[in-house]
TrEMBL record:
Name of the protein in its database record: Acyl-CoA synthetase (NDP forming)
Domain (N-acetyltransferase): residue spans on this chain: 29-187
Gene3D superfamilies per record: 3.40.630.30, ATP-grasp fold, A domain, ATP-grasp fold, B domain, NAD(P)-binding Rossmann-like Domain, Succinyl-CoA synthetase domains
Domain ATP-grasp: 713-930
Length: 931
């Protein structure tokens, strides 16, 4: 390639192109740029291919790659010629380093076009590797200015044709001389994003299912484990939990009866072996186990789960041996990794790289374990020997102490688990993975997450929004910011306000709880009761005073209380209690709060029993606060007409019950209303990106580029945003000439930073109708500026806009959250009182509407104190356009539209500032695992 437009010297090895990925079957592999030293591995890959695969790739028989081709294929410049390889661990008995299982390459054919080719190992075809490599080579090409791929494909190569067709890109194909020429537009489309997200969801869900559904469990201990030591106790408890759960597993296999996961224990010295060989099988080493189990893999593809309770160095060293066993996942109770400092972090990275290259997921380090309880699969690989019973709640947490607290709380309330996972340091498996799994898991009806850190908030928001539309998601974050980062957790810094996380969770439809207690309060309601169809609440209590207190609490939580409440006095009999309770339950209400706190105590509780029976009969959403009762209790259980037992959840206090009901009612309303449709105002995205790329071409990495007014106008114009024309002047004569050009009346504004938008300091003069007024204002402002600042500053002349409400729209690119859009009314009061709303693009029309209406000062936009309503749809349109711009252009470091005047007939941008920088947002057009 000799095109002058591409005289860029061969770039350095693009480390950012490396990524770990999950394939369709849930296994993992590593993708990276090809290197010169890959020649032998590439030849081995080629030789192992079938004649058919070689013919599909080269259109001719080619038993071996000639040396000149090996040289050309492995020596690339990563600009005009690039190649990516997918690598895996060596096969059994091989000691050849990484094994290539797939190749994707492009060769530039024009300024913005390239020819692309793929070759996938026969052994992994059908696992989605071709689709993954297409995403990654397309992302690499876009970085180098390539916008179009072309490929020649034989008609018989149906798999490759399907990869192109199903990727979601815009493409054309032409058949000529028995060869298809496929041309692909590399700009991501809505369909390509949707296809990628769905493939990602299925792959991640499948990878988690392999954690829970295993053929065997391999417990790896250290040969130096001392009897009675902490490590020995950990191993003993892990084996005890596994043995107990194995007895519960009933898996029918070919009619031969139950098949239970086998338990193999490796490395544990004889003195520490406490379990009977009837329950577990002991092995001296992983090599010895591999020899025994060779050829013993189940036909259904299920592999072992490895549980590691060994020192960190031994845990890392165990990975190759576990790979030989075709282990699907590693569960690390072990500590001593990233949480202990740089050396531990390097150990963690080495373990993660080795595991992923071998196709394994990693839970931990520092995990408390995982648990799955369902009709056909039960595995307890935790340190809790007596876990909660099977149920419908899925729980994710991170640190082991949090796991202990959660499991104890769930058991104490009588709740049941469908699945549980403690991620420890969250080196690999995260809450995002569990949400992908829960989306398809019919046994999980309520998803609960305790998040001590969030590694990828944008992805979390996308997945949580999708899951929340199907089943409730309850979230607790550590600290109000959600970024009290424990040692060992990899989290990018954030500059966003603390409320940004709240807004992200609200947009996603998740139920935010303050702590574990609140999370379980909400979970037990969601687990046992239907969602309320509205906010109308009936109250029945054991005293009028209690009923009044509950009514006040209900109103504070956004519930509408029925005028009439029911009171069952302490001495009332069962018949009287049933009559009062039925009156409340049969009224026009959506939910009922029952409070039974007898002054004299006593075991006979007719109110509680009557409430349970009414709840079962009517199907009303019901919560109760009964003295001395918490969680699911017998007194609050009854049978509904179809014979199903209904539990009314009990709460420690009436306030807890009402708070949980209010949270669930808000979620139910979100489900009913829907989260809206994603706002996609018309935009020229290609031109915007071309402009940004051109402006940043000469900017060095790590520096910001402040755009001048003309460039800001040009960029905003790509998204349908127009700034009211303005002229910067340096004299009164220039000011009058500018006003004559723009049209009277005009505003005169200071350009000095300290005086911008500050009418109170003399920085703005409005409604100047003629040359005399303008000259007078100019002289006064120039003098005041010099007095205040000690120097002169130019002034701006701008056409006046019809009176309205001044607003501020901003966007910032945050290292953690990505683009964050904010909205508020202009003025010091708004800034001082933090009356600002936030949104994380992409925004739906409902998100935009909520951003406007959630402000405390929002009434000024809808008619206030005799002033009529403003054009709210117009400012919503501005917000939607800014959100799309921020989402589309990661190089947009900051944008400020201040002020935007919302009048009765439009929204007018009077001033805009923008800053660019080279984008650092993770590429969302390709699938990649964290780490």
């Amino acid at each position: 390639m000799t095109d002058d437009a591409h005289e860029t010297p061969a770039s350095a090895y693009p480390l950012a192109w490396e990524a770990d990925v999950i394939l369709r079957d849930g296994s993992t592999t590593h993708v990276r740029p090809i290197r010169p030293e890959d020649a032998d591995a590439l030849q081995a890959f080629h030789v192992a291919q079938s004649e058919r695969s070689i013919y599909f790739r080269f259109f001719a028989p080619l038993p071996r790659l000639p040396e000149k081709d090996l040289e050309r294929f492995t020596h690339v410049d990563h600009v005009d010629r690039a190649a990516l390889v997918a690598v895996a661990s060596p096969r059994d008995g091989e000691d050849t380093g990484e094994r290539i299982i797939g190749v994707a390459r492009y060769d530039r054919t024009g300024p913005d076009s390239a020819e692309v080719a793929f070759n996938i190992a026969d052994s992994v075809q059908g696992r989605g590797l071709g689709s993954v490599l297409l995403e990654h080579i397309a992302a690499a090409a876009r970085e180098r200015g390539i916008r179009h791929f072309s490929a020649e494909v034989l008609p018989q190569n149906t798999r490759m044709l399907a990869v192109f067709r199903e990727a979601g890109y815009d493409l054309t194909q032409r058949l000529e001389d028995e060869v298809y020429t496929v041309t692909i537009d590399l700009d991501p489309t809505e369909r390509s994003r949707s296809v990628m997200a769905e493939r990602e969801r299925r792959a991640e869900a499948r990878s988690i299912s392999t954690l829970f559904d295993v053929a065997s469990v391999v417990v790896v201990a250290s040969p130096t484990t001392q009897p009675g030591s902490a490590d020995a106790q950990m191993i003993e408890r892990a084996i005890e939990a596994l043995v107990a759960s194995r007895a519960l597993t009933q898996r029918a296999t070919d009619g031969d009866g139950p098949q239970r996961p086998r338990i193999d224990v490796v490395g544990l010295p004889p003195a520490a072996r406490l379990w009977s060989t009837d329950e577990v099988t002991y092995h001296e080493s992983l090599a010895a186990l591999a020899d025994v189990r060779e050829g013993d893999a189940p036909d259904d593809g299920r592999g072992p789960l490895a549980v590691l309770a060994a020192p960190p160095e031994e845990a890392v060293a165990a990975v190759p041996g576990l790979a030989r066993l075709r282990t699907h996942a590693l569960l690390l109770f072990s500590e001593g990794f990233a949480e202990v400092g740089p050396e531990g972090l390097e150990r963690q990275r080495a373990l993660l790289r080795a595991a992923r290259t071998a196709g394994m997921r990693v839970v931990g380090p520092g995990s408390y374990g995982l648990l799955r309880a369902s009709a056909d699969v039960t595995i307890n690989a935790t340190l809790a020997t007596v876990p909660p019973p099977p149920g419908r709640i899925g729980v994710f947490c991170q640190s082991a102490p949090t796991a202990v607290t959660l499991l104890a709380t769930i058991a104490r309330r009588g709740l049941g688990l469908s699945s549980f996972l403690s991620a420890g340091n969250r080196a690999d498996v995260s809450g995002n993975d569990l949400m992908q799994y829960w989306h398809e898991d019919d046994d999980t009806h309520v998803a609960c997450l305790f998040l001590e850190s969030i590694g990828n908030p944008r992805k979390f928001s996308r997945i949580a929004r999708r899951l929340s539309a199907r089943k409730p998601v309850v979230v607790v974050t550590a600290g109000r910011s959600g970024q009290v980062v424990p040692p060992g957790h990899a989290v990018r810094p954030t500059l966003a306000p603390r409320r940004t996380l709240d807004e992200m969770l609200r947009q996603s439809g998740v139920i935010r709880a303050e702590n574990t207690h609140e999370m379980m309060d909400v979970a037990q309601l969601l687990d046992t009761q239907p969602l309320p169809p509205g906010r109308r609440v009936g109250i029945v209590a054991s005293s009028a005073a209690l009923a009044a207190l509950v009514a006040e609490a209900a109103a504070a939580n956004g519930l509408a209380v029925l005028p009439r409440t029911g009171v069952v006095a302490e001495g009332d009999d069962a018949a009287q209690a049933a009559r009062v309770v039925d009156e409340v339950f049969d009224a026009e209400c959506d939910a009922v709060v029952v409070v039974d706190i007898p002054v004299l105590g006593g075991a006979d509780r007719p109110l509680a029993r009557a409430a349970a029976e009414a709840a079962a009969r009517t199907g009303r959403t019901t919560v109760a606060s009964v003295l001395g009762r918490h969680g699911l209790v017998d007194e609050l259980a009854a049978t509904n007409p179809d014979g199903t037992t209904v539990h009314v959840p009990a709460y420690a206090t009436p306030e807890d019950a009402v708070r949980a009901l209010g949270a669930v009612a808000r979620y139910a309303a979100w489900r009913r209303d829907g989260f809206g449709t994603f706002a996609q105002p018309e935009a020229d995205t290609d031109r915007a990106q071309d402009l940004v790329d051109a402006w940043l071409a000469d900017a060095s990495a790590g520096t910001d580029l402040t755009l001048d007014a003309a460039r800001v106008d040009e960029l905003l114009g790509c998204y349908g945003l127009t700034v009211v024309p303005v002229r910067t002047v340096g004299s009164a004569d220039e000011a009058v000439a500018a006003a004559d050009e723009l049209g009277w009346p005009v505003a005169l504004k200071s350009t000095a930073e300290a005086l911008r938008h500050r009418a109170d300091l003399g920085g703005v003069r409005l409604g100047l109708t003629d040359a005399t007024e303008l000259r007078t204002a100019y002289a006064a402002m120039a003098a005041e500026t010099e007095r205040l600042l000690g120097e002169a500053a130019p002034l701006d002349v701008q056409t006046m806009v019809t009176g309205g409400v001044a607003c501020v729209v901003r966007s910032t690119e945050d290292p953690l959250f990505g683009p964050v859009v904010s909205f508020g009314l202009a003025g010091d009061a708004t800034d001082l009182l933090a009356d600002v709303s936030y949104g994380i693009p992409p925004l739906t029309d409902r998100d935009v509407s909520d951003m406007v209406r959630s402000l405390r000062a929002a009434p000024r936009l809808f008619g206030y104190r005799g002033i009529g309503p403003m054009d709210v749809p117009a400012i919503e349109d501005v917000l939607a356009r800014v959100a799309r711009l921020a989402d589309d252009v990661p190089e947009l470091r900051a944008l400020e539209l201040y002020p935007v005047v919302v009048s009765p007939h439009g929204a007018h941008v009077l001033a805009a500032r923008a800053t660019l920088a080279h984008g650092q947002r993770p590429d969302e057009s390709r699938r990649a695992m964290p780490g």
